[in-house]
Amino acid sequence: MDLSHAIAARAVKATLPDGTPVRVLPGLQAAALAREHALPVREVDALALDADILPGRYLRNFTAYSAAEQARLLRATAALVGLGGLGGTVLEILVRTGVGTIVAADGDAFEESNLNRQLLAEDGRLERPKAEAALARAAAINPTVTVTARAAFLDAAGMAQCLAGARVAVDALGGLTDRPVLARAAADMGIPLVTAAVAGDTGYVATVLPGGPALWDILGGSADPAENALGCQAAGVTVAAGLQAAEALRILAGRPPRLAGKLLVADLSDMTFETASLT
Hints:
This protein has 279 residues and is an alpha/beta fold. The chain folds into 2 domains: 3-71, no CATH class; 76-277, Rossmann fold (3-Layer(aba) Sandwich), CATH 3.40.50. The chain contains 11 helices and 11 strands. Strands 6-5-4-7-8-9-10-11 form an 8-stranded mixed beta sheet, sandwiched between helices. A 3-stranded mixed beta sheet has the order 1-2-3. Helix 2 crosses helix 3. The radius of gyration is 19 Å and the shape is globular.
């Protein structure tokens, strides 16, 4: 029996929360088929989606994503630079949503001051590499996707290597010093860059397309970012990272970005969200 027929044979009837009948491929069946056919589980899930059979793991993603969009996510690669406050939460969302391959990097280790806001930070991980925690977290959440995390601070060449083959680059760096280097690497690779930052109660998210507005000419560069003076809280980081992940997922699913050439600013002190044009 070929794989397509085997997937159909092992699918079961189910319903979405709104009562819509669907066929579902349970995770245990997908894993068994992957072993039998020497394929990654994510590719078995993607083939199921090609036949409008929904992997059980992603059942609640519908109707946020069509079967074709979910398959596209599973076959996509995202680059994620930074695994701290923003990056840890973005990683969590991408892994849970089903982005098939995530290439990440962060040369930093956890310190006590990270515990107030960084999803990957735990008491038992202090002084341990953030990249190490990212790999463990991803494997615990969704072992069917492929995550690589390099424990290194990337130079221009390293950023280009990290972005190779990706459909989107996610800038989760701290401060402003290294962000223009990442932006140039993304532009050189011809891929969108989704960037975000948080200071105090305020965060911003923007998407920079190749050849688009030079965000860093507007914001400038500084070795002493605003977050050092204003602090950085969990609520603001989570909101900004959620918006950043949502925009990256749009791009990976094949939809047009909502924030291309725009800056979305969220201020939790007065619960306002404003969008400014960068052109």
